[in-house]
Amino acid sequence: MTQDTGSSFHQMWRELLPLGRHPDSGGYRRFAWTGTDGECRAWFEDQARSRGLAHEVDRNGNQWAWLGDPAGGDAVVTGSHLDSVPDGGAFDGPLGVVSAFAALDELRGRQARFTRPLGIVNFGDEEGARFGLACVGSRLTAGQLTREQAHRLTDGDGVTLPRAMEGAGHDPDAIGPDPERLARIGAFVELHVEQGRALDLSGDRVGIASAIWPHGRWRFDFRGEANHAGTTRLADRRDPMLSYAETVLAARREAELAGAVATFGKIAVEPNGVNAIPSLVRGWLDSRAEDQSSLDTVVGGIEKAARQYADAHGIDLDVVRESFTPVVEFDHALRDELARILGTDTGLTVPVLGTGAGHDAGILSGSIPTAMLFVRNPTGVSHSPAESASEDDCVAGVLALADVLEGLACR
Ligand code: GLV
Ligand code: MN
Ligand code: MN
Fold first, then answer.
1. Torsion (CA) 70, 73, 77, 82 in degrees, nearest 10
2. Residues 28-42: pLDDT tens digits?
3. Are 149 and 161 in contact (CB under 8 A)?
4. Ligand 1 pocket, residue 261 CB under 6 Å
5. Nearest to residue 362, comparing CAs of 336, 338, 334, 326?
């Protein structure tokens, strides 16, 4: 490690830490195209400019910092995202961006000579916390989300994505597939905090990703009849909350049977009054499984159960798939190259792990060779203020990323 790498990491980490942290929960609320998102973006631009990197925002709102001219092609890109889930942790996303700048500092300290352009990226709206769809920036770039579809996305306050983009000074009519940009990239490596305990259990600081489970989000709308909570006999009610509650239990059962996961983590109720029977309960299901057929079985089973419960209570049910990401198998050649680079330095075998979490690297894997590095998370907790990684492990992640970038971009 060059002398300043640890301190460069810690200084950036300290600067970023207060942005968007809620004083009560201690969690982060960094949502796409809000003022807080703007602060995170300004931080990114400062980091780029203070290192003499060319800064640009692409048509889809993703931010890039370049060393060397990307027009040269075959660029090596690293980075992640700065947005968060509601009350998220400090590491999911920012660790990959801060580590990217710190790895560049490390390589400059080593006087590495770059033979390929190096890019650092902050992908917009990875978590989809505001508009409900994850990885909007990378999906648009990769052509997995059209401009028309993106223009229909709406947040919980009824603000559409184009209006939110405009409000933040970005032209929403320019968004769409960006194959020219992707054609200039030879490899994308995303470093991320692990969102499980595999590295803690194996005793390793850093691992390499093998695959991402197929996953998706489904919206269940249960519609009944609003009525008085005090005067309506139980027998006369059409209460959608009952079918919703039974469906939550069915989701747990189906997931257990298939060795998968299924979560109703977000709900909207109308009219949302303590003394009113709801007219609508809208629940969002997130489900993931190791393979496609298990996922189909789980979601099919949940929907079938929901329809039976809805019928039994006189409830109308609509189920809409809002997003889906098929299984991702990361590029084998790039993955082997990462293992070789990291193994050569340490003489160790670096663990190779699958994950149930979604990432921009997964979205881009259909267009360009991508790989991921994971940094140990001692509790495995993620999407929560309790998410963590030790300082030593973060620095080990920076050094591993620096080795990888040196191996790929300084040959
Ligand atoms: C993103 O972190 C996801 O897996 O939902
Ligand atoms: Mn996340
Ligand atoms: Mn993430």
1. 50
2. 999 999 999 999 999
3. no
4. no
5. 326
> Which residue minimizes the CA distance to atom 1 of ligand 1?
358
> Where does the pLDDT of residue 349 fall: very low under 50, low under 70, confident under 90, or very high at 90 and above?
confident
79, containing H or E segment: strand 75-81
3-state helix, strand, coil in the chain (%, to 5): 40, 25, 35
pTM: 0.95
Strand partners, 209: 353
Looking at the CA of 355, which ligand is closest?
A: 1
Q: Check: CB of residue 186 under 8 Å from CB of residue 331.
A: no
Q: Which residues surround ligand 3, an ion (CB under 5 A)?
A: 92-93
Distance, CA of 69 to CA of 117 (rounded, Å): 6
Q: Does the pLDDT value for residue 177 go beyond 70?
A: yes
Q: What angle do CA 85, 299, 210 make, to 5 degrees?
A: 60
For residue 394, what are its two tokens? 């973060």
Ordered domains of the chain (ranges, CATH): 5-213+327-409 (3.40.630.10), 215-325 (3.30.70.360)
